[in-house]
């Protein structure tokens, strides 16, 4: 035994066990988040419950959302009569009844003893609405043009409603947005000429004519909008709710409808894939508790890529100066200590620095010099994606500097001397020999920077991220990439849905789904950088040897 301990084998096994436990914990956490998030999109069965609430029989239709065991003592403390209970704990069910708008809440909590009868609700329909969440009811009829139609016309009515909604979004996001952009351009042009004292009568008349022309076009588009909306004014879907009353839902409010209890296994898989696609491709609605997260995905990836473009040159230049040019004295040692200490500064401090320096000082100066015609409305003197990327670049800069400097230190001096002996200058040696060989280390620093920056939330709350961004930072209007705009972020989306949602129970699955998506995006970005690093490492392996 003593010989076995002296051989070092126990420490090898201990290290291997610690690594294995860490991997199991990480994978288990990812699997839990993935299961909780992705199962939300599966068409769960809908039940009909006969319950006894406060001595009154009642019919409840909904999904079994959660089941927990409640101690009898806790129920007694809450004032519940526990004389009928024989067990120490009683099952408590959380039922998602939906139908928000008909009732105060779309969740109901009942004890198992309050359930008289439970059965699958045959032919029940789940309606996904534009607002007020899901509706559970039995389809009765379809109304087209004010006249009742058989349910067989439902698919046609849904297709027509989706087509009209698509045309409305196209008009609002393309044609109306283009008119608004041109009107704002003309307003700024006129204001700029006024500030410079160069506004002539001819210029004023020209601008007024163009504005009147765009206003006329806007009126025509507005009439088209009203005409499209009027196509579905008299179309509706009639369903019978759990109380037996008929409820009429306008077709403009109906996004989708399915009957989960009538779907085959293959149809459920297809429905699950369709719902996941909608989650990834659509914009959020209902205070971020419904809809998708595409703007947040776009904002997260775009911000990380912008940050990477900014932090890599700065970090590499700083590391090259410290290792290749600066002498080893107290000043350079002080710089290295400062760089290491900067890596431990809380992220919220970087957010305050970005707000004060980048937004107010740099952005305000840019507005005064280049965008005076837009003042007092700021252009760059307000939080935006540019300042968010710069703030995160400053925050992750120490990681890139340290990683790059370590990579430069691993390159043998004989390689540098050989290049210099062949007549190359120091700059040529750096550019053609040293930096390419150090590129794997540079990519390692970038990987660490991306891993930290993609999940940060606190600094972004001060320098650019918002709950709901009206437009993406990218469109078809010059300069096409609008770095001054605010943006959405997956990390902030998780925070907003988890802690600021008006409907906590309904939003909980979206927290898991968005968290899993954020982890997936970070892993995808890191795997891309790791693949590039491995390619560079293999490319220069022979030269290092």
From TrEMBL:
Keywords: Cell membrane, Coiled coil, Membrane, Transmembrane, Transmembrane helix, Transport. Pfam families: BPD_transp_1. Residues 154-196 form a coiled coil. GO terms for biological process: phosphate ion transmembrane transport. Residues 297-529 form the ABC transmembrane type-1 domain. The chain crosses the membrane at residues 12-35, 293-322, 334-360, 380-402, 441-466, 510-532. One of its GO terms (cellular component) is plasma membrane. The keyword Metal-binding does not apply. The keyword Cytoplasm does not apply. InterPro entries: MetI-like, MetI-like_sf, Phosphate_PstA. GO terms for molecular function: phosphate transmembrane transporter activity. SUPFAM superfamilies: MetI-like. It is a multi-pass membrane protein. Gene3D superfamilies: MetI-like (1.10.3720.10). Belongs to the binding-protein-dependent transport system permease family. CysTW subfamily. This is Phosphate transport system permease protein PstA. The lineage of its organism: Bacteria, Pseudomonadati, Pseudomonadota, Gammaproteobacteria, Vibrionales. The gene is pstA_1.
């Amino acid at each position: 035994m003593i010989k076995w301990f002296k051989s070092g084998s126990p420490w090898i096994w201990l290290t291997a066990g610690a690594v294995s436990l860490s991997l199991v914990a990480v994978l288990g956490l990812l699997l839990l988040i993935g299961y909780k998030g992705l199962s939300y999109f599966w068409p769960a069965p809908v039940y009909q419950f006969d319950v006894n609430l406060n001595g009154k029989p009642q019919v409840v239709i909904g999904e079994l959302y959660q089941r927990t065991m409640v101690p009898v003592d806790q129920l007694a403390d809450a004032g519940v009569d526990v004389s009928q209970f024989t067990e120490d704990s009683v099952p408590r069910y959380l039922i998602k009844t939906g139908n928000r708008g008909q009732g105060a809440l779309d969740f109901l909590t009942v004890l198992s003893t309050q359930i008289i009868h439970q059965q699958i609700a045959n032919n029940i329909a789940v309606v996904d609405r534009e607002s007020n969440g899901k509706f559970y009811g039995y389809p009765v009829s379809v109304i087209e043009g004010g006249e009742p139609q058989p349910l067989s016309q439902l698919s046609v009515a849904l297709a027509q409603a989706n087509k009209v909604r698509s045309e409305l979004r196209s008009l609002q996001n393309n044609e109306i947005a283009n008119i608004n952009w041109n009107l704002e351009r003309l307003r700024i042009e006129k204001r700029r000429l006024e500030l410079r004292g160069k506004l002539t009568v001819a210029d004023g008349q020209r601008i007024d004519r163009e504005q009147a022309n765009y206003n006329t076009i806007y009126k025509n588009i507005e009439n088209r909008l009203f005409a499209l909306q009027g196509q579905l004014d008299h179309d509706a879907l009639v369903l019978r709710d759990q109380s037996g009353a008929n409820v009429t839902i306008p077709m403009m409010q109906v996004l989708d409808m399915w009957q989960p209890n009538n779907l085959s296994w293959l149809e459920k898989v297809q429905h699950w894939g369709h719902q996941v696609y909608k989650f990834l491709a659509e914009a959020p609605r209902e205070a971020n508790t419904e809809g998708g997260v595409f703007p947040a995905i776009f904002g997260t990836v775009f911000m990380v890529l912008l940050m990477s473009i900014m932090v890599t040159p700065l970090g590499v230049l700083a590391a090259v100066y410290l290792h290749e040019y600066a002498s080893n004295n107290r000043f350079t040692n002080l710089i290295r200590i400062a760089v290491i200490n900067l890596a431990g500064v809380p992220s919220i401090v970087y957010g305050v620095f970005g707000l004060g320096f980048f937004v107010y000082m740099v952005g305000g100066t840019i507005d005064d010099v280049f965008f005076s015609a837009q003042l007092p409305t700021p252009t760059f003197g307000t939080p935006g994606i540019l300042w968010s990327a710069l703030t995160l670049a400053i925050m992750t800069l120490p990681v890139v500097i340290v990683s790059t400097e370590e990579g430069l230190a691993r390159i043998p001096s004989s390689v540098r001397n050989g290049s210099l002996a062949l007549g190359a200058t120091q700059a040529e040696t750096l550019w053609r020999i040293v930096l390419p060989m150090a590129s794997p280390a540079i990519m390692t620093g970038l990987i660490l920077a991306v891993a930290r920056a993609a999940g940060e939330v606190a600094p972004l709350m001060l320098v650019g991220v918002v709950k709901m961004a009206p437009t993406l930072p990218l469109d078809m209007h010059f300069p096409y990439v609008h770095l001054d705009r605010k943006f959405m972020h997956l990390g902030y989306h998780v925070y907003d849905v988890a802690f600021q949602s008006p409907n906590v129970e309904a939003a909980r699955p979206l927290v898991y789904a968005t968290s899993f998506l954020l982890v997936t995006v970070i892993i995808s970005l890191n795997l891309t950088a790791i693949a590039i690093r491995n390619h560079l490492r293999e490319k220069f392996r022979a030269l290092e040897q």
